[in-house]
Specification:
2 domains; four-stranded antiparallel sheet; alpha+beta; 17 strands; Aminopeptidase
């Protein structure tokens, strides 16, 4: 039997400890990351316990952390009577222990859906499952449970990932560009914890590149990224390429267990001309993350996956990456 408990701040340590012990949790699903923008979302996350209170209600009754078998990150959109898992995150979904079985996940999914129907009058659940590359063991149980619940696919984004256990050879063009960067005097640097000035300098470059080429802005502000880097110094890294001490390119890397997720990629005009990002990605793949399972370059889509940026994904594939889907 199952008991569902709504998340509250006094369960923060319990939540975070469970994310660490789960088979598919990453630091993005810890509360400090989820809650840095809590003013934008009404949290309705759940903790799932193996056991049921005597009166059969969805409430806590002598349950302990030993009984905790899953957590479910979620937020509530009252206007649309919709639960999201999770609007503020790249992915959400059910985090479970390695030993949890398919039948148990089916029961959990039914209990979660029933809870939201009964206690929030929800009419819809929008669910972004965690891609399989982030799981320590096979984790398709939730996908089957979604199928059984009548879920339908509404969005599919394609990310490009390099399998570090079986890497493909980099394209000749990418290697040639990396050598050009070295010949031009480019070199790689990684900022140390607390170096807000270098982060600010890079964020200025990033904002300029995004505005010029994509008419966009970073999802995180400089202040938000500085906060997250201070709270997760072992997980969030900034790597930059310099020329005569100037920043010409860079990336932010989220280190999620054995996956290095690359994002906030930017290169100025000089960096584009002389292959700064090619040099940086060659270093990350061949040296820095060679002991990881995957290097994930992120998605290359717009319009919910209906448009593929072929030039962008071709560049990523040149580093030996191939497709992994991010679904909703």
């Amino acid at each position: 039997m199952i008991t569902i408990i709504p998340y509250s701040i006094n369960r923060k340590e319990t939540w975070d400890a469970f994310v660490e012990s789960s088979k598919n949790g990453t630091f993005l699903l810890k509360r400090n990351f989820m809650d840095y923008h809590s003013d934008r979302f009404f949290d309705c996350s759940l903790l799932v316990y193996a056991g049921i209170s005597p009166d059969g209600e969805f409430k806590e009754s002598g349950l302990t952390t030993k009984d905790l078998v899953a957590v479910f990150p979620a937020n509530w959109d009252k206007e649309n009577q919709t639960v999201y898992s999770h609007q503020g995150l790249t992915y959400g979904g059910l985090l479970v222990l390695p030993e949890v079985t398919q039948k148990e996940v089916l029961d959990m999914m039914q209990a979660i859906l029933q809870y939201y129907r009964d206690y929030m009058q929800a009419v819809r659940l929008v669910y972004k499952p965690i891609p399989y590359i982030y799981s320590s063991v096979p984790s398709g149980e939730e996908l089957y449970a979604l199928f059984r619940a009548g879920a339908r696919l509404t969005r599919r984004l394609v990310s490009t990932c390099v399998s570090m256990r079986n890497p493909m050879k980099m394209a000749t063009l990418r290697m040639r560009q990396a050598r050009k960067a070295v010949d031009h005097g480019f070199y790689i640097d990684r900022i140390i914890e607390g170096d807000i000035e270098t982060l600010r300098e890079y964020w200025t470059l990033l904002e300029g590149v995004l505005e010029k080429y994509h008419n966009a802005r970073p999802t995180h502000t400089l202040q938000e990224m500085a906060l997250l880097m201070s709270q997760f110094p072992k997980n969030i890294r900034l790597y930059i390429v310099r020329h005569e001490k100037r920043i010409v390119a860079g990336v932010v890397v989220f280190e999620c267990r054995k996956v290095a997720h690359v994002q906030y990629i930017a290169s100025g005009e000089e960096g584009r001309t002389y292959g700064a990002l090619d040099l940086l990605f060659r270093h990350l793949i061949n040296e820095r993350y060679k002991q990881y399972d995957y290097v994930d370059f992120g998605t290359s889509n717009e319009d919910g996956g209906r448009y593929l940026n072929e030039g962008l994904i071709h560049q990523k594939e040149g580093f030996g990456g191939r497709a992994v889907c991010y679904d909703t």
